[in-house]
Amino acid sequence: MAHASTRRVLPGFGLSLGYTLIYLSLIVLIPLSSVFFLSAGMGWDRFIDAATAPRVVASYQLSFGASLLAAAINVVFGLILAWVLVRYTFPGKKIVDALVDLPFALPTAVAGISLTAIYAKNGWVGQFFEPFGIQIAFTPIGILIALVFIGLPFIVRTVQPIIEDLDVEFEEAAASLGATRLQTFRRVVFPTLLPALLTGFALAFARAVGEYGSVIFIAGNIPFVSEITPLMIITKLEQYDYEGAAAVAAVMLLVSFALLLIINGLQAWTTRRAGREG
Amino acid sequence: MSIEVKNISKSFGSFKALDNVNLNLPSGELIALLGPSGCGKTTLLRIIAGLEFADEGSIILSGEDASEKHVRDRHVGFVFQHYALFRHLSVFENVAFGLRVKPKPQRPPEKEIRERVHRLLNLVQLDWVADRRPSQLSGGQRQRIALARALAVEPQVLLLDEPFGALDAKVRKELRRWLRRLHDELHISSVFVTHDQEEALEVADSIVLMNKGRIEQIGSPHQIYNEPATSFAYSFIGNVNEFRGRVEGGYVRIGNDLLPHGRSDLSEGSSVIAYARPHDTEIVKGETGEGVSAKVNRILASGAVTRVELIANGDAREGKKDYFEVEVTPDDLAALSLSTGESVRIRSRRLSLFGDN
Fold it and tell me: What is the ipTM of this complex?
């Protein structure tokens, strides 16, 4: 038989792969490719002009920089939060666990408005920073806070099951071999959690790059200071500059895709190193 | 290193895992903590290691009170039932772990670490897997690596928690012999936990038999098997026939049957449990006379001795079907000429009696 080598006990590979490709095309690839078709119509010179205008470049830096930083902050604090939720029991644990998902459920505009109210000069939190000359709302710091807020659940929810799987025996073994708590974390716990942390990082980063609703209220949208790339796209659309909007979007898409590819590659590599396969 | 356990008690909620345990383990021996699951043996081992802390009492290692010491500072090697090897590290790095985490001044140079790890891997006969990941090894190999890892830091005492519990029967037997040999080579004080009496009897220098958070008996395998001190010790170790009844003169009355006990220190009418090993039990033909009435159920004639399984005729234990086992030599079996379903009587040359509370 010609197909003997590819026969499987459980059939369905052809059907499910075909379905996956069609679905991915309809939902993701075709709509995204229209961005490139639109921008292709404008010619190379105008594309470069639109995509590299100084104001737009400043927005790239802010969007990608703040998103990476927010995801990094979330890796640290999300890990601590997930650790506490798995390892300890305390009154109200269930409530805290449910609170973690709130940034998922809340309309982002609500988050933006409430964060702005709290961190504004006269807000609950903002008033304590005002005397030191630190302004949070309407600056990049405000953007960072909004992005941290919306990215938190991604880290917690990806790391939590891995911590649940992590047997205390490994830490006990390390301690009995003379390792301090810090050494145990660095040499035993962290390498095991790293693949999940990277996955969470990628998800939080991707979400932050595309975020619009919550950021737009707290950002203040000052040119060259606190304008994010999605805002630049909206601005161009409002001026009926569809091609210019598509050009900026194309750059954003490519950079995001490249970054996600790198993170996923890292994730696969650390998974192999963590000895999880086989 | 000698281990002294003094008045150790430990509760988990309302469950008393250890109840005032005292133990004195001499240096250089291989000791088994034996008992049924839930008897507190693992808890005791973990308290000795410092992975758990007792509610009361103290642990004295080499004459020094270690009760408040962290596991890091107790210099014990601990081997887990499920190996607990670090999955992301190679076999070599697993064994080297304890040396690499030493504080800088005590950390041996890289060259010495290599030598020591390879020496240990040779000791457990697994030097050829040094570069592999734990996931590429069999269960028996993993446990040997776990042992090498524990030995790398030159512990004063080696503690093993059901070290062969997760392995299949054949590998288990092999590793048992191997552990004994290793111990004879290194002479490091070792304590291992097991619920397998055969394992304890075969490997250990002495056995600590535990039940319900208390120590039942401490002794050599020979003592534990041949001179059980308590009713529990008798029933837990080895195959045994059990008879419950009341003392009536020179007999124990069990329902309608009378079993001769040959003792003179028993008070008339007291409730007793009598035990007899299968090889100390004999079958007598005929339906009347001394002994407990039983019916031959199966005759298992494989091996040097024939095992005869019998079912009690009377209500030896109030309605519950009571099985007895008797070991007979081929000559005796021929003389008896038993057939399945035949009613006979059994009695014992060596009956051990304990008061039944």
Answer: 0.82
